[in-house]
Amino acid sequence: MVSLTQKTSRIRRRKQTTNGKVNKRVRRASGTPVFPVHVEAAAPAPAAK
Prior knowledge:
49 residues
């Protein structure tokens, strides 16, 4: 007979993995976040001599 602690730890681990899969799927579906490619405040790099 398996101890109750062992059972609960297995159940918790299983639930964590399934929740992680759902979260990953949601993040993937949302796509890439919108962010500025060229920030106007950024100064151009100095020319190499």
